[in-house]
Design brief:
single chain, alpha+beta, Chitinase A, domain 3, four-stranded antiparallel sheet, 15 helices, 11 strands, about 50% helix, globular
Length: about 475
């Protein structure tokens, strides 16, 4: 499941920044000779109308304020002649930091910088390969994707996203470059790899048969962040994986980290592997996933070729209806306790309430029954089971029509029960179609080839580090 890296996230901004740097450099060059001039030289200039024409400059100007700080940033790496600057790293790192809920230490940020640099090198190689293969992505394509990302991923207009990126100390240029890298890599894979992937009908039918044989077994929807490693880089990559894991546990966005750091092809979709069975996973990941609960993070898990961080999004059973998708119609009956009521009085009122609700004769009598005991009643006819508190899900699924839960709550929050007044069971899962399964197998093979392709690009590249 660990494949070649893709990622998503202007030249106009870049050019503007370049011009600003040049202008600051020119100002510094002008300031040096002026400060070094002697009084005689100043006097000579004063006598020469051409030297001061239309400017009316003082002979001995007093310089106010500190010397401007140069904005020049040297190359951090040069990839086949393409420069990656410290500013490029800073702005891409800012995207990660913006998705993190906790402030990182200087040491943590330095580790993330190293990973960001590696990602920028891969991205540069992908863009260069697309250009060499005459598959270069146009500026208009990048702009169209950027506008779509603004609306779909951020819920913003493009101009609002521009402002947001500047606010978090990134830039539209950084995100657009990331988009260019992703589109370039997708285009390369479509032309240089996908046409040479063959999946036979027998393979697809064999997998369909296995699916039917596995009916009722567990399926897992997993997110993965994969970091590739060689024998030389293994220790460093493991430290980086552990660092990312710590940031995720402290509230970092798994999707954001996957998009920025994962070197699997699923990085473009936030690391989502989709629904898989344990038999489809490498043994190391299968063992880890089998012990996970929904919402749990595990890792780093060592694999051949690198390390993975896993996030279990959900589980279901193969070719079975997902009971979590059951839609319930519920009535909630509740009572409150007056402030200052003694514990004994509250306990008696709760006990009386528990006995009274059990006497309500079905949903039709719920309103009148609640009124008789001085309780409040609220209805909701469209509640999905998996959206309810986990402690209540199995209880509600087991109740018949008109069934009532045991009372729950506290003296501070009140005591309540839920009554099941309707149920819509989910449709039986039909499993993937022949065409869907063939596409899945093709994607798996394309992703494996993509990892090898990117590895070869790295191996053949001339990369200078400063």
């Amino acid at each position: 499941m660990t494949m070649g890296k893709t990622s998503t996230m202007s030249e106009t901004i870049f050019r503007a920044a370049g011009r600003a740097g040049l202008m600051l450099g020119a100002a510094a060059m002008m300031a040096g000779p002026l400060a070094a001039q002697t009084p005689a030289a100043n006097a000579a200039n004063a006598d020469d109308p051409g030297a001061n024409a239309n400017l009316d400059l003082p002979a001995n100007p007093d310089i106010l304020g500190a010397e401007p700080v140069s904005q020049f940033r040297g190359a951090t790496a040069i990839v086949n002649g393409t420069i990656i600057t410290g500013t490029d790293i800073d702005q891409r790192l800012a995207l990660v930091l913006a998705a993190n809920q906790n402030e990182l230490s200087a040491e943590d940020q330095q580790r993330l910088r190293a990973q960001v640099l590696r990602n920028l090198i891969d991205e540069t190689l992908q863009i260069q390969e697309a250009r060499a293969s005459e598959l270069e992505v146009s500026n208009s394509e990048v702009e169209a994707t950027y506008n779509r990302v603004a609306q779909q991923n951020f819920g913003m207009t493009p101009s609002d996203l521009d402002a947001y990126l500047y606010n978090v100390k990134s830039s539209p240029a950084s995100m657009k470059q990331q988009i260019r890298g992703e589109l370039s890599w997708q285009r390369i894979l479509r032309r240089n790899i996908a046409p040479f992937i063959n999946v036979s009908e027998e393979e697809v039918n064999e997998r369909l048969d296995r699916l039917k044989a596995d009916r009722g077994t567990e399926e897992y929807r997993l997110g993965e962040i994969f970091l590739s490693a060689t024998s030389e880089t293994k220790a460093e990559v493991q430290r980086q994986a552990q660092q990312i894991m710590e940031q995720l546990r402290e509230g970092g966005s798994f999707v954001a980290y996957a998009r920025q750091f994962s070197q699997a092809s699923t990085a473009a979709v936030g690391g989502d592997l989709g629904w898989v069975r344990l038999a489809q996973l490498p043994p190391e990941l299968a063992e880890a996933a089998s012990q996970m609960q929904a919402g749990q993070l595990v890792g780093p898990v060592e694999l051949r070729g690198g390390y993975s961080l896993l996030y279990l999004i959900d589980t279901r059973k193969v070719l079975m209806a997902d009971k979590g998708e059951t839609i319930l119609s519920l009535k909630q009956i509740s009572i409150d306790f007056p402030e200052g009521m003694s514990p004994d009085a509250a306990a008696k009122r709760a006990n009386d309430f528990a006995q009274a609700v059990q006497q309500i004769d079905g949903c039709g009598a719920a309103e009148s029954g609640a009124a008789a005991m001085g309780a409040q009643i609220v209805s909701n006819d469209n509640l999905r089971v998996k959206d309810l508190p986990p402690q209540l899900q199995e209880t509600l699924l087991a109740l018949p029509q008109g069934g009532i839960t045991q009372p729950f709550g506290s003296a501070a929050e009140g005591v309540r029960v839920l009554m099941v007044c309707g149920r819509t069971d989910p449709a039986m899962a039909g499993g993937p179609t022949f065409d869907e399964l063939m596409a899945q197998i093709e994607d798996e093979r394309i992703n494996k080839r993509a990892q090898i392709y990117l590895r070869d690009l790295r191996r053949d590249a001339v990369i200078d580090y400063n």
